[in-house]
Amino acid sequence: MAEPIIHIAHLTGGYGDQPILQGVSLEIPAGRFVGLVGPSGAGKTSLLKAMLGALPHVRGEVEVLGSRVTPGHPPIGIGYVPQAETVDWTFPVTVEQVVLMGRIRAMGRLPWASKADKQAVEETLARLGIGGLSQRHIRDLSGGQQQRVFLARALIGQPQVLLLDEPTASVDVKTRDDILHLLVDLNQQGVTIVMSTHELNAVAAHLPWVACINGGVIAQGAPVDVFTPAILSRTFGAPMRVLRDEQTGGILIAEGHDHGPFGDRLAPTQAAD
Amino acid sequence: MQYLTEPLQYEFFRNGLIAALIIGALCGLMGVYIVLRKMSYIGHGLSHSVFGGAVVSYLMGINFFIGAGLWGFLSALLINRAARKRGIGADAAIGIITTASFALGVALISKTRSFSRDFESALFGNILGVTPQDIMVMAAVALVVLIAVLVFYKQLLFSTFDPEIAPIYGVHSTWVETGFALALAATIVASLNVVGATLIAAAIVIPSTTARQLTDSFGRTMVLSTIIGALCGVAGMYGSYWFDIASGAAIVLFSAAVFVVVLTYASTRDRLKRRRAMAVPSSAAVVTSEIIEAPAAGTAD
Q1: Closest residue by Cα to residue B242 from B13, B1, B21, B7
Q2: Cβ contact, residue pair B218, A15, below 8 Å
Q3: What is the ipTM of this complex?
C-alpha cells in the first residue's frame, strides 16, 4: 500500500458531550478515491470535518498530508466541498467571487482580484465545463452547475486532497453521473478524493474503494467485497439485498423488505373472474 | 435652491449635516455585513447595551467614547460567543446580553438619583447638539472602519458567506470576528448622538436591505448601501429642518420611504423579467401542438 496521505487512529469526537465518532481508525493512501457511506447521523460529515480541523471536540490522532490536524488548525493543501443545503443561495455573490474564496491564501492585500486571479478562476471553471459563468449570481445556476462552482472553489488552490460532503445530493441522475465522472478524472490526475454519499449504487458503479461508517468504520474495501447484505445491514440497521449482474459482475443494492409499509396496497389486484 | 442653502447658515445644522453624512455612510457600510450575517437586531441591541456602558462610564468618570465603546465591544464579543453555543441562537444571545446591560444602566440611574447628565440624547439622538469634536471622532471611526473593511474585504466576505468553511481556507476567524465586533461597537457608539439607541437598528438595516434590492454583487451592495446611507442622512437632516421633526426620526423615515420606492421598482422589474422569460414565441407554440398531435396520428393508423 502507498504511503497514507490521511492517517486517522483511535479518533473519538463530536460536537457536544455525546461523541458521534468512536474509536475510528482509517488510512487512505495517496491517489485513492474513497466513498464514505452510512445512515444519516452516522458521522460521515463529522469524519470529514475531523480531517479539516473543523470538529470541535476530538480525541485521537488525525494526520493529513503529514501534518497533525487539531480543532481550529486545518491542514494546508486540502479542498472541501460542503453540502449544498448549507449554502445561502440568496447571498449577493457571483460565481467568480465564490471561486476566488478558495484562492484567498494566494491573493494579495487589495480588496479586488488581480488579472492572474481572474484568469485562474476562468481556467478552473472551464476545466469543470462551466466556463463563461463567472459573472452569474450563484442562485441563477442549475443544481449541477452550483455543485461545480463549489468544486471549482475547492480546486482553484490546487489541493492534493479533496473532501466532498454529499456532492451528488439533490441532483438528477445525469448530473450525478457527470459529477462522478468529473471526480474520477480528477482522481486520475492524482487528486486523492474522499466523498460522503447516500448513493450506494453510484458508489458501487463508479468508486474503487468504500468505507461503511456508523459511529466507527464497519468495513472498507472495494465495493464488490464490502457491499454484502451482512455489512450493509450492520451499517444501516436495516435489511439490504445485493443483486449481482452475472454478465458484468456489477452489483445493485436494494432494500431488504419484500414490501414497504404500503406493500399490500401496491400489490397488483386480482382481476375478478 | 433656497431649500438647500438656507439651513446651512446655522452652525448647528452644518455640524449635524456632516455628522449625518458620516454616520449614514458608516451605518450603511457596516449594515451590509450585519444583515447578511442575519444579525439585523444587533444594532438595536448593542445600542441599548452601550447605554448601560455609558451610565457606568459616567459614574466612574471615564470618557464616554472609551467607556461605552469598550462596553459595546465586550457585549458584541459575548454575543458572538453565546450565539455559537448550541441551543442559543444569535437572536436570543442579542436579547439576553443587551437587555441585561440596558437594565444595568437603568438600575444605576434609579439608584443614583444625583444625575446631572441627560441620557435622553443617548436614547433618541441629539444631532443638533453635535460638536466639531464629535465630528472628528465620527470621521476617525469611519476612516478606520473603512480602511479595515478594505484591507480585510476578502476575509470578511468569506466569513460572512460561509463562516464554518472560511477557516479551512486560511481565514483566521477569531481575529476577523474580534475585529468585526470592535468595528461594530465603534459604529454604534459613534452613531448614538446622531440617531439614538432607539433608531440605530433602522439606520443600519434599511440602507443595506435597500441596496440588496438593486444588485446581486457583494461589492456593489456595499458601495450602494454606503451611498444610500449617506444620502438618507443628508436628506433626513433637511427634512428635519423644513418639517420641524426630530432629526433621527426624519433620517429613518426618509430611509424607509426610499426602501419602499426601491422595493416597488425591484418587484416590478422582476415581474417584467419573469413575464418576458415566460413569453412563448408563436413558432414554439406551433411546434408544441405538433408534438402533442403526433401520437394521436400514430394511434389512428
Answers
A1: B7
A2: no
A3: 0.83
